[in-house]
Structures are given as structure tokens and as C-alpha cells.
Amino acid sequence: MKIRNYWNLRDWGADIWERANRPKRVAIAVTSIILVAHLPFAGASFLATPIAAYDAVLVYPVGIFVLMALGLNIVVGKSGMLDLGYVAFFAIGAYTMAIMGTTTGLNTWEIMPFGIVFAMLAGVILGLPTLRLRGDYLAIVTLGFGEIVRLVVLNSSWSKGPNGIANVPMPPDIGPLKFKLDDQKVFFWVVIIMILLTIWMIRRLSVRRPGRAWEAIRQDEDAAELMGIATLKYKIWSFTLGAAVGGAAGVLYASKNLFIAPEMFTLNVSILILACVVFGGIGNIWGVIVGATILGYLPDRIRFISDARLLVFGIVLVVVMNFRPDGLLPRKKREKAIVKKEVNA
Amino acid sequence: MRLEIKDLHVHYGKIEAIKGISVVVDEGEIVTLIGANGAGKTTTLKTISGLRKASSGSIIFDGQDISNVPAHERVDLGISQAPEGRGIFPGMTVLENLEMGKFHRKNRKAEMSDDLDKVYTLFPRLKERASQSGGTLSGGEQQMLAIGRALMSRPKVLLLDEPSMGLAPQMIANIFRIITEINKTGVTILLVEQNAQQALQRAHRAYILETGNVMKEAKASELLNDPAVREAYLGTGAHS
């Protein structure tokens, strides 16, 4: 028992947080944000990634993965719907940025709301007919949706088909902070701000009615309906908010990468983001952040072993999931105990 | 207040599970639907609460046809169900479960402590377990929680789906005693049961369902002494 407790990082962290008073909590939060914001300056340490530029890796995959995983966690973790087509919303955001950025002369920040709204619209359009489905059926439909979006941009002239869209404009400078290709610190800080906004949104919603409703739907959808919860409405909200975060991530990604093509938005991305959520701990924001950070960072850190790196990556996944089947930082323990009990009964 | 089901048909895919059932529940009654597995008892209840769509027929509640009202809005009208297999939220505490029962109420904050008191008076055990998570309760306690949670929405009609399922005899007697008590506070009850003996002792009227049809409708006390019913549903051997 002792050993288990020692390993229970979630409870350990929650303990410190519970015991801290308000000023202490603010201090912890501010210190961690400052520390994380300084990460791009640690390029010379053991954190450095061979081959790929360290500051670029921090933005993509790491930062954007964390952002997307947080968005997907609203859908998969909070309301318990398996979405295998999350990349579609990322793609919609990215293509909104690329097309509007190259044709209208609007800048990234002006296009951001469009990307978010288009992704949300896609979420509603997909959600209305399909969210009546549950479990595996929903997973298959969303998987199909992800592929549809990719195939549409691959075969359309307005998206320049397989050639992709080049010369996507960078975001305009914010005062002294300049967005540069060879120094992506500012991009990283923008990602951090977006991540913080997402965390703030999720935490606000979690303690209010939508959070309660999602929780009920996840645990027993029929019972939730019997409590007077408009389950379809709340499921669509969850789906749409997840889509919004994905869309925002897409806009930023296109603006950072300057070039996008359909092959960047394959099923692999959806699966990888889902893996981040599961690996870190479904439903727990901090777990998801840790999971996405590790899964985003690891492949680039071990790039020096070239071809074997995906093998190592896979082994790490399998080993960790074996020792921690609920993820690195699982959600509250009392829910875990129950799942086991139900299996036995 | 009167709940009336007229010529109800329900399909699962192509299979017709309910083949034209008509049931009437008057205000203040305890009415029970009894029958074997696959008779359509649970399906009938789910169609009344809105979890399943009727293929044809109508459900009239308080003079209004509610067949096309979605399930979550039927709760507002005063229909509340304690689902089969209890259907509690295992990851929420007992208190949180009970609070969920009030999710849709407009003035839930004002009503909360009153109604919690009422439920705790009916089920003192739930008060002891208030901060324990639902999934760690025993079967009987979970059933109490399911009923208590259904009462939190101040229903006019309470639909109970096999409250005795999987419970020890003493707990069954206890649950049925409380059901009678709830009825005395003015809540109409539609009870689906396989435990015909207990159900018929507590109910005013009963319907016997067989493979999607109503076979018989009568006063519960009459059925309790009906030789054919005793033969089919109550057992005639050592128990009687």
C-alpha cells in the first residue's frame, strides 16, 4: 500500500493544493507559469533536441499537442464520447488561416475567431445527426468525418489539392515581441496563453452546470436524461467546445508552419492526440498536459536513434500503460475504484 | 392527474416488443405491471419516461399527449423514473447523486435542503452515506439512492423498475414498505416487478403482461387470490 501511495502523484499534487491557501496557490500558479515560459531558454541543457530546433519543437509538437489534447479531453474525458476524427477541426482551423491569410490580408489574430467559429460550426453539423449514437458507433462516424475533411481538401481546387497552401502569413509582431522562423519563443508564449485560456474555460465549466451534466452523461447517459438533462444539447456543447480548441490550434499551426498540406491532417494525428489524453490520464487536465508534453517531446528528443525511435516510442507507451493503466495522472481515485467494482459485479 | 397509455406499440428494430398495450394510472394509485422476462414491462416504463420512442399509440399525462415530448422535458411535467439496475452515478457521492435529481428544477437552490431532508427521513441510511461515492454502496442502498434521487424532482408519478432486483428478502420488504409510504405522501406510483407476491400486496391495481400484451387487468387483491395467477406468477408449492 505504501508504495502505491508514493506513486500516486495525483493525490500527492492534490494534497499540496488543498492545503495551500489562496495567496499560496497564486504563488504556485505564477511560479509554474514563469518557469514554463522560460523553457525556450533551456536550449543548451539536456532538454535540447537533436536535429530538430528545440524552440520549434516546444511549439509544435509539444505546445500544440497539449492544446489539442486539452480540447479533445473535453469530449473524451469530460463527457465520455470517443472522437477519432479530432484532426478534422485542427484541419478546418489551419485551412481557414491559410486561405483567408493568403487571400484577404487579415492577420492571424483577426482570422482566429473565424477559424474557431468554422470549427465549431463543423462540430454542430457533425454533432447534430451523430451524437445520438454512442460508444463505438460514434467513434466510427467521427473517424469517417476526419477522413472526409482530409479528402475534401485533398481533392478541391480552392485548397490547392495535394500541393497544399504555401506562403501563409506569420502573425504580426506584438510590440517588441517578434515572430520569427528561427526563433519561436514568441509562438511558444502565444501557445501558453491559449493553453491557459483553455484550462481556465474547462475549470470554469467543470464546476458549473455543464460540468455536472457532462459528468452525469459520462457515467450513465440514460440516467442523465431521466434527471432532466438535455443530453443531446450538452453533448453537442462539449463536442463544439472541443472543436473550438482544435480550430484555434489549427489557425496557430498554419501561421507558424507557413505551409500546410492535406497529408498533415491524417488519422494518425487524431490517434496520437487521443493517445496523449489516455497516456496522461483521461479526464484530468494536468494528466493530459503531462501526457501530451511527453508524447510530443519524446520522439524529437530521441531522434538521434533515427529509425528505431518509433520503436522506442511504442515500447514506452506499452510499458507505461502496463504499469499505469489509468494514465500517468489519473482522475479522482474514487471513480477508479468504482469501475473495478462494477467489473466484478 | 392521470396517466393513460393508449394502444402503445414499441419496436426494437423490426421486433415488436410492445404490441398494443393500454394502461391507466389514476392519481394516488399504486399500479403494478407484472410478468415474466421479455413481457415488455421495462420497455413500457422506458417509453413512458421517454427513453424509448413509441412506434404508435399515445401517452396522455394530465390531459396532454406527451408522446413526442423528449425524456428530459417529461421530468418537468412530473414524471420521474428510478431506472432498472438502479442507474445511479457511481462516481458521484450520494449527496451529488441526490443533487443531480434536481438538475432541471428552476428554483432548485430554494428547494434543495427541504427535499434532502425528506429523502433522508425516508432513507436514514443515505444520510449516513452522504459523502460516500454511489458505486461503493450495497445493492439495497443503491436502490434507495435511485428512488431518493427520483423523488428529488418532486414527481407526480414515480416510475419504479424492478426495485427488488438482486436484493435480500429483508431489504425487499423494507423497500416495498417505503414505496407504500411514498405513495401515502401523494405520489402516484407505477411499479414494474417480477416479484409478483410483494408487488400485488402493495399495489391497488395490477396489469399482467405477457409477450407485449396485457393479459389481465384487475384489483391487486383479486389477482393475489386468483388460482391461475398463483399458478403462473406466485408459485403454489412450499411458499403458500
Kindly describe this structure.
The complex is a heterodimer of chains A (345) and B (240). Chain A is an all-alpha fold. Chain A has helices at 2-7, 9-19, 22-37, 54-78, 87-103, 108-130, 135-155, 185-206, 209-219, 221-226, 231-257, 267-280, 285-301, 309-323, 333-344. Chain A has a domain at 52-265. In chain A, helix 5 packs across helix 11 (231-257) and helix 12 packs across helix 13. Chain A is globular, with a radius of gyration of 20 Å. The model of chain A is unreliable at 335-345 (pLDDT under 50). Chain B starts with a strand and ends in a 6-residue tail after the last helix. Chain B is globular, with a radius of gyration of 17 Å. Chain B has a six-stranded mixed beta sheet, sandwiched between helices. Chain B has a four-stranded antiparallel beta sheet with strand order 2-1-4-5, with helices on one face. In chain B, helix 3 runs parallel beside helix 6 (139-151). In chain B, strand 4 and strand 5 form a beta hairpin. With 240 residues, chain B is of the alpha/beta class. Chain B has ten helices and ten strands.
Short description, anyone?
The complex is a heterodimer of chains A (345) and B (240). Chain A is an all-alpha fold.
What is the topology, as strand order, of the major beta sheet of chain B? Answer: 6-7-8-3-9-10
Which structural category fits the helices and strands of chain A?
Answer: mainly alpha
Total number of beta strands of chain A: 0
List SSEs of chain B in N-to-C order.
EEEHEEHEHHHHEHEHEEHH
Helical content class of chain B: 25-40%
SSE class of chain B: alpha/beta
* Sheet with the most strands, sense and barrel status of chain B: 6 strands, mixed
Radius of gyration of chain B, in Å, reads 17 Å
Instruction: Identify the most extensive interface between protein chains.
Output: A-B, 25 and 30 residues
- Give the overall shape of chain A: globular
Low-pLDDT parts of chain B are: none
Number of separate helices of chain A: 15
User: How much of the residues of chain B is beta strand, in percent?
Assistant: 25-35%
